[in-house]
Amino acid sequence: MPFRIDDNVVTIDGHSLVEEAQPLFEALLGVDEPIFDLGQAQTLHTAVVQLVLASTGRVLKAPPDRWLAACFRDRIVA
Amino acid sequence: MNALLAQFIPEARDLLEQAGAGMLALEREANSPTVINDVFRAVHTLKGSSGLFDVVPLTRLVHAAEDLLGEVRTGELALNSEIVDRLLDSLDVVSGWIDALEAREELPVDAEATMTERAAVLRAWLAHRPAISMGNGRVSSNEPPAWLSDLPEADRMDAYGAASGRPLLAWSFDPEESCFFNGNDPIAMLQHSPGMLAMRTTSCEPLPAFNVLDPLACWLRFEVLSLASREALEEHMRYVADCIDIREIEPCELVIPRGASAATPVFRDFVRVARQQLELGDLNTLARSISTLLSMVAPESLQASALRWCKVHLASRGIEGRADLERLIGLVETGTAATPSEPIETIHKKVDGPLPQPADQGAATHRELAHKIALQQVKILETSADAKSITGRLESVAEVLKNVFRAVAADASAEVDAGVAAVALSNDIGQLRALVSTLDSHSLANNQSPSIELPRAVPVYVPPPPSLPAASSESLGEAKGIPRVLRVDQSKIDVIMNLVAELIVAKNGLSYLATRAEQVHGSRAIAREIKDQFAVIDRITQGLQVGVMSVRMMPVSQVFQRFPRLVRDISRKLDKNIELVIEGEDTEADKNVLESLTDPLIHMVRNSLDHGIETREARIAAGKREKGVLRITARHENDFVVIEVADDGKGIDPRRVKAKALQLGLVSAEGAGQMSDQDAANLVFTAGFSTNEEVSDLSGRGVGMDVVRSAVLKAGGDVALRTTLGVGTAVTVRLPLTMAVTRIVTVDCRGRIFGIPMDLVVETAKIKSDRIHRFKSMETFVLRDAIIPIVRLARSLQLPEDVQRRDEEAVMVVRIGGDRIGLVVDGFRERLEVIVKPLEGVLEGMPGFSGTALLGDGRVLLILDLQELL
Fold first, then answer.
1. What is the ipTM of this complex?
2. Burial of B580 (0-12, 13-18, 19+ CB in 10 A)
3. Within the 5-44 window of chain A, which residues sit less than 8 Å (CB to CB) from chain B?
4. Which residues contact B18 (CB under 8 A, 6 or more apart)?
5. CA B146, CA B87: separation in Å to the nearest integer?
6. What mean pLDDT comes out for the span B32-56?
7. For residue range B292-310, what is the model confidence (pLDDT) as tens digits?
8. Which helix (H) or strand (E) holds B637?
9. Is B152 on the interface with A (CB under 8 A)?
10. Is the pTM of this model over 0.90?
């Protein structure tokens, strides 16, 4: 599993696949105000990206990829 | 075969069937938005799914159909029969390609040419040709997209600089909600898209609360600036061509200054000087003037935005495009294009470099910057100035300070005015300095200034109400009503079914063992125990059989759904007006039974359309409604599924049938004379019989009804025909619900045992010999007022005659076709469930037997083919 949760810090490493979306979603349901560390995330599937965006979480470290990082810069228009 | 392709093929067939059925429905009710949407969705889904495979002609042809349906859906195109014909033709082609994919995993070699031809036919109907082709037909326009101004200014500036005056592409990508299930990863597609300069991620629609989100539904939307060519981009996004919208824009269309107007006298001074510098071509001085002013104005103001664009313009294009530069400078003075301000961190990034991402750190930095700007304003007041400029300077500083405080969500207009007044009256800067110090981050820590709320970078998570526990994924699935369907290869079900059938046969061995235990070993107790165990196993195997059978049961609609199209096409070809009525399409039968039913039914329907229902003129002349009715019904009768095809046509003329039978030598003149009208009508089931003088491509080849009868008999069923001259004809097919396990009853005949399918058995009876009478050349007996003809099995099988006279005969009454016949045997034995195997080896082709079955004691049982024997 490429994500782990320590208190409310959610660290996502390596290459996340669409299969991780469901367990991540279920895990995030139990985390108040999550803080995401994506600094070691090499690839993030869109399903995972949108979960991060939809949660209340802030992003401590953006992914190294420029375009992945761009996903977390703007506020999602709801 | 590729697992994904193996999954795609049945799905594609389902979608094609849905689309075909929907289009026929649309022909009848063209204004039904539900039906239009259903058809469109089916075609759209097929196109999307096909994009996963290297079947470009298929995708493009379906795309053309989708475009046409899209115009029907929006009301731009009125549907008519010709359009439906063309759409159905194209879907037929696609259906053929699916068959080819299944057989060879590739499209036919002529697929590209076929696609080009068919797609052109479909596109010829499109009301509006696309101004700009999107892949293969997506309509687009060249207007700049509305979302352009929502892109962060920094991104637009970067793209502006990178474009260096060249046109670029502004394109959006709205992935399908179900795209993850198609294996798509939209962000990965974007990461690899050519020439990307900027990307903004947003949502397609307002988001629900986090806890009710479907994590596997894509709701993101992407807006992109790109320097790629349209062709390269379309090629890269070809599999999701319908999800993208590409616009070609000029770089100047990115220049959209945004923010709240903050007009002050200092801007007028700047504009006057800037125009002079521009006139003189002193761009360096102009750039410095812009930087100086930028350090003084509120960064989120419209003027600051215009100034930043001035800087970018000067840096990338210099004096080129001077008109644009003058427009921006003019904007600084007029400040008329007031729009909602952008996220402040975006602006800061361009001016002073990127801000740290976390919102709290951003807030602190933001306040520090505000403090810095405010201190600069105070310093401006500390420098010497002549009397002429002091008033303008004070006004300017006051405006900037007010903006600075507003930028940190603190309205300090009154305090600023008071401080500025103190400076004007007594040159006292202390009051303003004290005010500015409240922006110091240390004072923030001491909670001495208003709190700061910055725009969040993520949507708000709405926690569930305390009384509602977080929904599990399972309950979410149930709440959404998602059907839990498992597609399983039929061969796997067949393996289980065959094993169940073997188990049922093996179970019969226990019954044999019980008999042996009692009769050979004299142990009645053990025999009883075996029988008890047999009952348990029997119950379990029956449950198992019912369970597996239910998996194989399918509604007859699987067969019926092709008839609307068939009837439509044939009736148009024959220029007949025919209404198709289908009833009982939910009736279920075993998949194999349904498959065996398909061809006979098609023959029956074609015969009714071709020979049964009259032409419009003939019907009117006969006093009938111009529109004929073909009724196909399905129902269960005990362990049978009964399908009836009935028409209100001209019926079958028995005299004409007899004459034709005589002509063909199928009956003798005497036989024809004695033949009842019903028997005459049944001659249509004879091989090679046809009353139709002309052979058409629909029927009339003299094989139709014979093929029907053969197929039905082979499947263990029977077929009957009722007809009334001038009123109509009904052909009824009865098939067993399942063909896997056959229930039989065994009979004795001259020391041998034979099996008779239970389906044919009406009843068994012991008949006193004196109740058997000879009528003409046939033995008969009366059973409840009905005369039943008798056939002696031994005689039919050419077994030795029984010399011993019996007082009573064992008669098994069986139903063959519509007739009941008494079959005389030596004795009745047990009922069994067996698997009937076809005759093989030396037995192959032996008349009178339909197959063999294995008995519990290992003996082979011959199953009688009573239809043939009697």
1. 0.94
2. buried
3. 18, 21-22, 24-26, 28-30, 32, 43-44
4. B38, B39, B42
5. 35
6. 81
7. 888 877 788 888 888 888 8
8. strand B628-637
9. yes
10. no
